[in-house]
Amino acid sequence: xxxxxxxxxxxxxxxxxxxxxxxxxxxxxxxxxxxxxxxxxxxxxxxxxxxxxxxxxxxxxxxxxxxxxxxxxxxxxxxxxxxxxxxxxxxxxxxxxxxxxxxxxxxxxxxxxxxxxxxxxxxxxxxxxxxxxxxxxxxxxxxxxxxxxxxxxxxxxxxxxxxxxxxxxxxxxxxxxxxxxxxxxxxxxxxxxxxxxxxxxxxxxxxxxxxxxxxxxxxxxxx
Length: 223
What we know:
Its main location: cytoplasm. It comes from Callithrix jacchus. The chain is α+β, with helices and mostly antiparallel strands. It has 9 helices and 4 strands, in the order βαβαββααααααα. It folds into 2 domains: 7-86, Glutaredoxin (3-Layer(aba) Sandwich), CATH 3.40.30.10; 93-206, Glutathione S-transferase Yfyf (Class Pi), Chain A, domain 2 (Up-down Bundle), CATH 1.20.1050.10. Strands 2-1-3-4 form a 4-stranded mixed sheet, with helices on one face. β1 (7-10), α1 (15-26) and β2 form a beta-alpha-beta unit.
């Protein structure tokens, strides 16, 4: 690895990792990526080497400026404070609060309820209808959050989640929409979410960081 170059430990399909990849792309930060396969060998995040790096055994993890940071929003806020261009948190405190509110709604109120570890436990509880139960659980978790998010965005959105500039909230939205699509959520009740997502996916940073274009993306999922 190149000395001094940031290193991102990531999994192509991890929505939390995708948030950070978008931030790095938007800010033009060159970095090296170390794939951590959350499925292979029972999950490479459980290895002793990775646990020493991140005791929570999760991605993303970013090594930068001589420190190691876990948790996607903490990473994004550090990048914002140390490399503030382009700005991902508005200067206006009211808009900044809205960005953080939406980001937390997704990162704390939706994604953790349908992530890999939770769905694995749900499947263990209901072994007879494992896949059907996991799908229903994920759909319920996402739609519950999206019902609230759609209502909030109707008052905060411009072109994007908060006004007309890309913010941290947008970095959380797009990966969560991808999760919802993977779990076959009906988007009919969410026109605002759908429109914002479509605009964001047209931006280069969101395309470059997309799960279908990562070094560890399986061949059959590449685009």
